[in-house]
Amino acid sequence: MVKQTIHNLLLIVFLLFTSPAVGSVGEVSFQTRPAQITRGSDKILTDIGTSVEMNDKVETLKGRVTIIFVDNTKVSISEYSKLIIDEFVYDPNTKTGKVNLKAGLGNLRYTSGLIAKNSKENIKITTPTASVSVRGTDFEVQVTEAGKSTFTLLPSIAADGSTYIGAIEVSNATGTVVLSKPFEVTTVTSAYAPPSSPVIDLSLIHI
Length: 207
What we know:
The protein has 2 helices and 19 strands. It is mostly beta strands. The protein is globular.
């Protein structure tokens, strides 16, 4: 147990010093209007190619923004949304790393990159009421001002153009559900209420 703990600590240290996460971890690849990045005491208006770093807080107003991370993870953020990049480390040699993102408000679509394929247990996206463990797939989360969070599992597109379905695990202190079917949805109304039982949103099937 002690050896395993030491090994995990050494791995994290290795990733921190071999990953481009020390500095830029990705960039803005698309936007309809500039978003604002808060980085320490700085306020940065985005443009195509603007870099993002760990601990950045990204806030959109009337525009939409897409961020491509260095492992090809893609996060699309809708109007009036907030995202914090808590942690992003990546080793391009092993294509492994760790991702922690916080969706504070609005709509966010997540598309898995190389880290999710090789170290799924290290992918976490949190909201004010729940957290998501990603198993190599696409999903969307909607967060209200009160923190109510709705998660939708979406089909993913492979490199050859085919579609496939992964899974996400949505949990908080009171319960856990797994979404594994396309367009399955669960809602978490508060941190003290378990995720609702998954149901398929039939209105999305035509997408």
